[in-house]
Specification:
Elements (H helix, E strand, L loop, with lengths): L5 E7 L1 H4 L6 H12 L3 E8 L3 H12 L4 E5 L10 H8 L4 E3 L1 H15 L13 E3 L3 E3 L8 E6 L2 E6 L3 H17 L5 E9 L4 H14 L4 E7 L2 E10 L2 H19 L3 E4 L4 H11 L4 E5 L5 H7 L8 E6 L3 H6 L5 H7 L4 H15 L3 E7 L13 E7 L4 E7 L4 H20 L12
Parallel strand pairs: 1-2, 1-3, 3-8, 13-14, 13-15
Antiparallel strand pairs: 4-5, 6-7, 7-8, 9-11, 9-12, 10-11, 15-16, 16-17
Helix pairs in contact: 2-6, 3-4, 9-14
Length: 425
């Protein structure tokens, strides 16, 4: 694969066009294709209409080396992706008895019934000569075939099935197209926005050809992907090392991990490794910090509990902060954030605690600008407070403040300066 292959993703489903569900399949597949060095130049969304899908396929085959479809592989009458693709490429549909048996086992062992309706066996028909992608996560198998110089991959639409099948089946299939190894590492950044990161690394990114360095904006974070292409994995790994080292030298401790899943996972591992516990007292974040931690398997080892003290009165009733203290300093203040963290630590008997209080909007307090948030971290002997200006939008405020809180925990546990300036852009 000396020259990069170009792919087009065709997402099939009227529900996508209506906005009933978000097209996360195309996003996730694009991220994985970039790891393989495959360009994605087009995303196409088509409703459950055979004529429009045929037209989209004919356009795609004229401009892409690889067509990847998601959705339309199920048992109902509007699931027509396989039939349309087979027709567009002049292939017959063939029944696979072993796939029908797999569906029977799935219904019996997973769903708990032997009563499988006849239309389910429509899923066992696939284009002739295709490579079958067995579905261990549902009932609709996927497949891949080559026709007229174009490679076609069909995947089921439900994200859980689509992502799992792409990683387990499509990725190995696509890797086999290359006589080279493509290796990527992801550096995760918090506390600085994409434009600020790009400004520091622009010259470096422009100079690099292999490996490459590219930023990707995530929700409240930035991901930097270093990708190398070589004849062996060892050679590709060797090529990425100096690039990663240089990026770390430039960006410093805003990089919270390499090839890690999330900031909360990093915090969880640090707490677990140090045999420490965390608790939370949240106002404007509404329990989002606690949610992020408790979404992790095994979180009970490190998380003692959290209080969502949204009203002023609840900060007194639940946490025990005197009402006159809140009146003196204002509910949105460094002083009240500090007391929230200290009282949460005592209430839940945790090693450390974090707290948030701020203005998510749309109403202000006449003192602080909208988007102002105070985030505090309390230890046995100290309290640290960061003031954020997180911009407008309730979701943005929650996300930015929760990132700050978790990052303060990371910094404390790794011996870094706990209070730093956070940048959104």
């Amino acid at each position: 694969m000396k020259n990069p292959l170009n792919a087009e993703i065709i997402s099939v489903g009227t529900e996508l066009l209506l906005g009933n569900i978000t097209n996360t399949d195309a996003r996730d597949i694009s991220v994985s294709l970039s790891e393989l060095g495959i360009n994605v130049f087009y995303h196409t969304v088509v409703g459950d209409n055979p004529e429009r899908l045929t037209k989209a396929v004919n356009i795609a085959r004229g401009r892409a080396d690889i067509i990847i479809t998601t959705g339309g592989l199920g048992p109902t009458c509007d699931d027509l992706t396989k039939q349309v693709l087979a027709g567009a490429f002049g292939l017959e549909m063939v029944f696979h008895e072993e796939l029908a048996e797999e569906m029977k086992r799935y219904f019996k062992e997973i769903i708990g019934t032997d009563n499988i309706t006849e239309n389910n066996f429509q899923q066992a028909y696939l284009p002739s000569g295709c490579t079958v992608f067995h579905n261990e996560w549902g009932t609709a198998p996927g497949c891949a075939f080559v026709s007229g110089g174009v490679r076609v991959i069909m995947l089921p639409g439900p994200p859980r099935e689509c992502n799992a099948m792409f990683q387990a089946c499509a990725m190995p299939y696509l890797r086999a197209l290359s006589d080279e190894v493509i290796l990527s590492h992801s550096l995760m950044i918090v506390g600085s926005g994409e434009s600020a990161v790009e400004a520091k690394l622009r010259d470096m990114m422009n100079e690099l050809t292999n490996p490459t360095l590219a930023p990707y904006a995530k929700e409240g974070e930035v991901m930097l992907r270093v990708t190398a292409k070589a004849e062996t994995g060892e050679e590709a790994e060797r090529m990425t090392r100096p690039v990663i080292a240089k990026v770390k030298e430039i960006l410093g401790d805003i990089i919270y991990g390499t090839d890690v899943t999330s900031l909360e996972q990093v915090v969880f591992e640090l707490l677990k490794g140090k045999k420490m516990t965390l608790s939370t007292a949240e106002s404007c974040t509404g329990g989002f910090i606690a949610k992020r931690i408790t979404d992790l398997r095994g979180s009970s080892e490190v998380f003692c509990g959290g209080a969502v003290t949204y009203s002023t009165e609840s900060k007194t009733a639940v946490l025990g902060i005197p009402a006159d203290y809140i009146a003196k300093y204002g509910v949105i203040s460094a002083e009240v954030a500090s007391q929230m963290a200290k009282h949460a630590r005592t209430l839940f008997n945790s090693s450390i605690a974090v707290a948030t209080t701020g203005l998510a909007g749309p109403d202000g307090d006449g003192i602080n600008p909208l988007g102002t948030v105070f985030v505090a971290l309390a230890t046995e002997n100290e309290v640290f407070v960061t003031r954020l200006s997180s911009g407008l939008g309730r979701a943005r405020v929650r996300n930015f403040a929760s990132n700050c809180a978790l990052d303060m925990v990371r910094r404390y546990l790794t011996g870094l300066s706990v209070v730093v300036e956070y940048h959104r852009k």
